[in-house]
Design brief:
Radius of gyration: 17 Å
Strand content: 15-25%
CATH topology: Rossmann fold
Structural class: alpha/beta
CATH architecture: 3-Layer(aba) Sandwich
Distance between the termini: 53 Å
Shape: globular
Number of domains: 1
């Protein structure tokens, strides 16, 4: 396909989902890698290959500050998320915020993030802002959105990892990329030790 080199690519990143995939990659490494130092632009340009990278969009549940027994934990999570949002801003990547709610068991769960991804994938397809969507999420709730995007004659490439691969998204997408170490590791920048 000769014209494929000119396809407009838009990368949709389910931030929480991708964060835990990155964490899995880095947890087994002996060198110290900071997840905040990930080069999303370089990674996305390599991911879309010869396609024209139009934009990267990052979706994540917004952490809210809390009072009471969870104050210290929420402050730390909030501070870390603010650092991430600044890093994304430095790389010209818009962060689209959903909600993060706390369940009675004290665990946190995102709400509305997959809906925001689905709505924007469909809206941008309808507005003809891309030819191929690269979807970095293993959330099977996005299967109907992928089907709808394809109805606009757009292609969807599901990007996941073999451990935790979404077979629902694999089945419905036009193509699948399963990330390996060599697809991820070059985009962590080594930090200089300050003395």
């Amino acid at each position: 396909m000769e014209n494929e080199a000119k396809n407009r690519a838009l990368v949709f990143i389910d931030g929480n989902n991708f964060y835990y995939k990155l964490k899995d990659f880095t947890s087994e490494k002996t060198e110290i890698l900071k997840l905040l130092d990930f080069d999303y632009q370089g990674f996305a340009k390599n991911l879309v290959k010869d396609n024209n990278l139009v934009e990267i969009r990052y979706y994540v549940g917004a952490i809210r500050r809390q009072n009471g027994t969870n104050k210290a934990k929420s402050e730390k999570l909030y501070a870390n998320q603010q650092k991430l949002l600044r890093k994304l801003q430095q790389q010209n990547i818009p962060a689209i915020l959903g909600n993060l709610i706390q369940h009675p068991d004290k665990s946190f769960h995102e709400k509305g993030v997959d809906v925001r991804i689905a709505v924007e994938m469909i809206r941008f397809a309808r507005e003809d802002k891309y030819d191929v969507a690269y979807l970095l999420s293993s959330d099977t709730d996005l299967v109907p959105a992928v089907e709808e995007v394809k109805s606009f004659n757009k292609r969807v490439c599901y990007v996941g990892v073999s451990k935790g691969q979404s077979f629902g998204l694999t089945k419905v997408s036009n193509s699948t990329i399963l990330l390996r170490d060599e697809d991820i590791m070059p985009y962590f920048h080594a930090q200089k030790v300050r003395g």
